[in-house]
Specification:
The chain is globular. It has one domain: Hexapeptide repeat proteins (UDP N-Acetylglucosamine Acyltransferase, domain 1, 3 Solenoid). The termini are far apart. The strands form three sheets. It has an eight-stranded mixed sheet with strand order 2-5-8-11-14-17-19-20. The protein has a six-stranded parallel sheet with strand order 1-4-7-10-13-16, with no helix packed on it. The protein is of the alpha/beta class.
Length: 214
């Protein structure tokens, strides 16, 4: 009884209600994700845990593959350190595009858009809130007067993220980037060039700061 007195009754009630809400939303989110995966023909491994909304858009002929033990958090109620600005979004925009997500990957409101190339994420990678990953600029840089109508497909390039990578909140990963295994990308970075394995990188643009090992 003395242990119970230490807690405010309203706090206990609020906590119980929140746990019921979490369990309910988790159940609904998993069912919704299962249905979307079926209708969009997305290959998904076993053991996924979905909390919140996932947007899926898949061009006919393209591929979206997700490995086992996938975890997606798209609701700020479950976010630990940051408010999630948008739901997890997986989009392929042409028949040649692919999104391949490995086993045991965790994402938080990430946006992944493959226009014509492949975006691959290795096993065990963690992606924090509000990260954007894309294989394209979506508009050609030159000539400037026709950027709005010049898609620049020829400049698209694969994005390859290795195993056990940790990507901090609000990172932007641009076309052609390769991030090596075990590396860490600091929050708020813009990655426009490849990062070697076992590295800590950060900044705008992101540069290697030091090795992950002493």
């Amino acid at each position: 009884m003395s242990k119970f007195i230490r807690y405010n009754l309203l706090e206990v009630i609020s906590y119980v209600i929140s746990q019921i809400y979490i369990k309910t939303l988790l159940f609904v989110s998993n069912i919704t994700f299962q249905l979307k995966s079926f209708f969009w023909r997305v290959k998904v491994g076993k053991g996924y845990h979905i909390f919140g909304k996932i947007i899926i858009y898949k061009s006919p002929g393209s591929k979206i593959e997700i490995g086992e033990d996938f975890c997606s958090v798209s609701n700020s109620f479950r976010a630990n350190a940051s408010t999630i600005m948008a739901p997890t979004c997986l989009k392929t925009l042409s028949p040649s595009s692919k999104i391949v997500i490995g086993r045991g990957v965790g994402v938080n409101g990430v946006s992944i858009t493959a226009r014509t190339k492949t975006i691959a994420i290795g096993d065990g990678t963690m992606i924090a809130a509000n990260v954007s990953i894309m294989d394209s600029d979506f508009h050609s840089i030159f000539p400037p007067e026709n950027r709005n109508i010049n898609p620049g497909f020829e400049f698209d390039s694969d994005v390859i993220i290795g195993k056990n990578v940790w990507i901090g909140t609000r990172v932007i990963i641009l076309k052609g980037v390769k991030i090596g295994d075990n590396s860490v990308i600091a929050a708020g970075s813009v990655v426009n060039r490849s990062i070697p394995e076992n590295s800590i990188a950060g900044g705008v643009p992101a540069k290697v700061i030091k090795s992950i090992y002493p």
